[in-house]
């Protein structure tokens, strides 16, 4: 039975990026701007902001399959563009569906790491993709040499490039021409687009101010998150990005600086200093100080106090 002509639509199979800079959101924007109909199937939902990815939720392979089949049975898009695939079950299901529906073009953008170096798939899965998925793809963006005309270090650029190639192929362009136009499109977007800016630096400075005011009484990360009306997970992203430490470590560092000043500049006993900084006992205080500094408060005072 002869199949019906495929429509000028591109099915993008990709993860969701809540910031809109990459993933399914960027694909939709790119495809629509280039005059083709975007239809979608989501592989992974990310908890994500401008600082990076907090968490992944990979959709089950049968849910992904149902999304793809619903579109392919009805719309029969001319081109399929594939992005983030994070597990073997999803990958095998996509291979099965490609063999079943035989789209005119399959464009694959291998999403292996984020622009910040976070690994998104295992070495084992990468090998399986090379053996099973790549032979079914007509275009693999990582194999295309653009001679340095595109800055791949910008978040989302690779995905936009792949979506643009898919759009031009859908419009009937030959491969080389589609790549040429996609490069031009990406370069134009890089100049014209306004990037979403987060408030990480602002929040980091606010956190430092709060810690300075309250670390002698509060060492619980939740306290600071509540004061700033953000989540502890977001605070962790901020401090890791700005100082490469956890919020807990940052609080402890400031607290120890205060304790050191008290040990060196007052005549308060160790027990008095312990209670002053909210420790329930002198032994608990000594254990905390030793963990951070490698010696007891008594030894620190003895070794560093001016005689």
Q: Any key phrases for this structure?
A:
307 residues; alpha/beta; UDP-N-acetylmuramoyl-L-alanine:D-glutamate ligase; Arc Repressor Mutant, subunit A; 2 domains; six-stranded mixed sheet; 13 helices; elongated; disordered N terminus
Give a short summary of the structure:
The chain folds into two domains: 7-192, 3-Layer(aba) Sandwich (UDP-N-acetylmuramoyl-L-alanine:D-glutamate ligase); 200-304, Arc Repressor Mutant, subunit A, CATH 1.10.10. The chain contains 13 helices and six strands.
Describe this structure in words.
By secondary structure, the chain is an alpha/beta fold. The chain is built from 13 helices and six strands. The protein folds into two domains: 186 residues, UDP-N-acetylmuramoyl-L-alanine:D-glutamate ligase (3-Layer(aba) Sandwich), CATH 3.40.1190; 105 residues, Arc Repressor Mutant, subunit A. The protein has a six-stranded mixed beta sheet. The N terminus is likely disordered.
Q: What is the fold's blueprint, element by element?
A:
Layout: E1 7-16, H1 23-33, E2 37-49, E3 52-58, H2 61-74, E4 77-82, H3 88-101, E5 105-108, H4 123-133, E6 139-140, H5 157-170, H6 175-192, H7 200-214, H8 221-228, H9 232-243, H10 247-265, H11 270-276, H12 282-293, H13 297-304
Parallel strand pairs: 1-2, 1-4, 4-5, 5-6
Antiparallel strand pairs: 2-3
Helix pairs in contact: 1-5, 2-3, 3-4, 5-6, 7-9, 11-12
């Amino acid at each position: 039975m002869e199949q019906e002509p495929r429509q000028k639509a591109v099915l993008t199979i990709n993860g969701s990026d809540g910031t809109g800079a990459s993933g399914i959101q960027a694909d939709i924007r790119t495809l629509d701007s280039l005059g083709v109909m975007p239809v979608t199937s989501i592989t992974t939902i990310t908890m994500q902001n401008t600082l990076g990815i907090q968490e992944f939720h990979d959709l089950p392979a049968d849910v992904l399959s149902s999304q793809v089949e619903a579109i392919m049975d009805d719309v029969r898009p001319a081109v399929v563009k594939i992005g983030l695939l994070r597990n073997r079950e999803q990958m095998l299901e996509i291979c099965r569906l490609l063999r079943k529906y035989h789209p005119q073009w399959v464009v694959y953008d291998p999403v292996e790491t984020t622009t910040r170096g976070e690994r998104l798939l295992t070495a084992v899965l990468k090998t399986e993709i090379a053996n099973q998925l790549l032979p079914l793809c007509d275009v693999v963006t990582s194999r295309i040499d653009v001679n340095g005309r595109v800055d791949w270090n910008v978040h989302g650029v690779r995905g936009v490039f792949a979506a643009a190639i898919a759009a031009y192929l859908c419009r009937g362009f030959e491969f080389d021409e589609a790549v040429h136009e996609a490069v031009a499109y990406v370069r134009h977007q890089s100049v014209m687009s306004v990037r979403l800016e987060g408030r990480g630096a602002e929040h980091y400075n606010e956190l430092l101010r709060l810690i300075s005011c309250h670390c002698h009484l509060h060492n619980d990360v939740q306290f600071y998150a509540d004061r700033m009306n953000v989540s502890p997970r977001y605070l962790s992203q901020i401090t890791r990005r700005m100082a490469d430490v956890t919020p807990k470590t940052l609080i402890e560092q400031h607290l120890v600086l205060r304790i050191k000043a008290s040990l060196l500049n007052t005549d308060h006993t160790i027990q008095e200093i312990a209670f002053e900084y909210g420790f329930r006992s002198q032994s608990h205080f000594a254990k905390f100080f030793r963990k951070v500094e490698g010696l007891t408060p008594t030894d620190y005072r003895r070794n560093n106090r001016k005689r």
